[in-house]
Amino acid sequence: MKKSMDLIVDVNKIGTVLKPVNINLDIDWLKNILNNCEYPINAESVKSVLNASYDNDVVTIKGNIFFNGETDCSICLSNTSININVEIDIALKKQTDKINTEIKNEFTSDDLEFEYFNGNLIELSEIISDEILLALPLDPRCPGNCKSIPYLIPADEPSKEISSINPVTD
Predict the structure, then answer these.
(1) From the CB of residue 143, how many other CB atoms can be counted at a distance below 10 Å?
(2) Which end of the chain is more exposed for a tag (fewer CB within 10 A), N or C?
């Protein structure tokens, strides 16, 4: 996986108050990440707005990654556009010698709340790529009625009176 210097955060440059972090996501990097998706997506643009803070050996990164692209509707197979807003809320804890030497036989709640990092530089490409893939829809659909499929409830409308449809007579 292509890693970019723009996806590295220097802990020494982060204060205790959330402030903007300059992370430039390259469209080619995003396309490479989207190759791991189960269906083809043609990404067209990407933008990130991220803030970070560092307090008590914990780095907090919050913000959003926005991108849009095109893929096929999983129902009618026509080309449809998708707009994805990936919410980022990550807590990374500085790994200490105590954690390195301690042998754990079971997980604690801390193990599930934090990612861990060593040193003063945090490489975010793997964490951000996981967040992007998790934000993708399982079955992308047209924004409205799919063509040629009667009685299909559009993805962006709440369920209407389904009970009024009789599959035997309709």
Answers:
(1) 14
(2) C
